[in-house]
Amino acid sequence: MTSVSDLAASNTGSSNLVAVEPGAIREDTPPGSVIQYSDYELDSSSPFAGGVAWIEGEYLPASEAKISIFDTGFGHSDLTYTVAHVWHGNIFRLDDHLDRLLDGAAKLRLDAGFSKAELADITKRCVALSQLRESFVNLTVTRGYGKRRGEKDLSKLTHQVYIYAIPYLWAFPPYEQIFGTSAVVPRHVRRAGRNTVDPTIKNYQWGDLTAASFEAKDRGARTAILLDSDSCVAEGPGFNVVIVKDGKLASPSRNALPGITRKTVFEIADSMGVEATLRDVTSHELYEADEIMAVTTAGGVTPINTLDGEAIGAGEPGPLTVAIRDRFWALMDEPSALIEAIDYEG
Ligand code: PLP
Fold it and tell me: Which PANTHER family does the record associate with it (predicted)?
């Protein structure tokens, strides 16, 4: 793995061109696997090289990005957001991300104050300025702040939109996506339900997800799959869960985010003639699954090899998971309506 200090050391010459993003840690990718970074050079003479934020109408180098502590997005987590990604210079399903963001905002009675087309343009401009060919792109709409510090009257708050593009971040690094990983079902915490903090609106209220991550770590696993209050499968810290049983896919229809990756996984399954259904998935079905995959923008399609220390299927990445994972990454390069090339010269 390339460390930040390695990068700093490799960037002390007279050239402004660096082979990888400044400050980024490029995770190792298994040689010959479907996950490979672009090979390109970044012109670090631009202050925007390697990361850009758009805040209150201004493009800033990511290192200078700051927002008010009086924003209720911070104080009350009163917001919604989405994370899209750029791979090999193509942004993936931006339209779907914007639809989900604006749907969530509408449910929360938040007005982004920008049209979908305007948000798309600003997002693509952030990526273009950053020069990043592999990028993690965050768009957040908050309730904002008022003229008076700490204003409580919701009608007096000016909603804010923050957008940034930074080097790719992994929920599941490439090695785990290729070789699989481990999960537990937390004993001490359940996923918030739709009548509390609605998980279908993407949000930063990660108390349950973070507690689950700590429990996983304490029990020697990499991540957690949370159940809801009915003991049905909900989702994990930053991912949707898809199970495979007898050649069919299923994923929870409630108490989980309508993930863009899961939507893609279902479309891939459909193109392969594999049935995929959104429905209740019981904890029993989870333990008895032939294959389990964790699916997310920041982690593609990751096989779960073990659950609570017990093998899922053969305890290694299953055939459907592998086929879908490989197809998912192939989509990042194939011309289609799902991807749009970033105009880095524009
Ligand atoms: N569930 C949660 C709680 C998430 O935070 C995420 C993504 O960050 C997902 C599911 C997967 O959603 P997507 O595929 O749109 O990234």
Answer: AMINO-ACID AMINOTRANSFERASE (PTHR42743), AMINODEOXYCHORISMATE LYASE (PTHR42743:SF11)
